[in-house]
Design brief:
Elements lengths: L4 H9 L5 E2 H8 L3 H13 L3 E6 L2 E6 L2 H15 L7 H4 L15
Helix pairs in contact: 1-2, 2-3
């Protein structure tokens, strides 16, 4: 489920709040029908939870375990570059980028 970048972006947007499809579509820059299909897959995988209010359906990350999984996946991906990852830049004592083994 996390191999698809749009799904990761959707989950990232929902980490701390619930959102309807149209707002999620705006946030990720994709058409609402495409976002709905991704959300349906995330729902089937039990990564998101839905709540209906009138005609709108609101989506949120299923639980803290899923939120932690998404954060860790994104933070780990940020370590792929040579620079200090963004999530370390605001810390009081940021980690320094170290050369990769075999890199010069």
């Amino acid at each position: 489920m996390l191999a698809e970048p749009t799904r990761v972006r959707l989950l990232w947007a929902m980490l701390d709040r619930e959102l309807p499809v149209n707002e999620l579509a705006d946030l990720v820059g994709k058409p609402a029908p495409s976002v709905s299909q991704h959300l349906a897959k995330l729902r089937m995988a039990r990564l998101v939870h839905t709540r209906r209010e009138g005609t709108q359906v609101f989506y949120r990350v299923e639980n803290d375990h899923v939120a932690r999984l998404v954060r860790d996946a994104v933070f780990n991906a940020e370590h792929a570059g040579a620079d200090v990852p963004r999530h370390h830049q605001d810390e009081a004592t940021p980690l320094r980028a170290t050369p990769r083994q075999g890199a010069k």
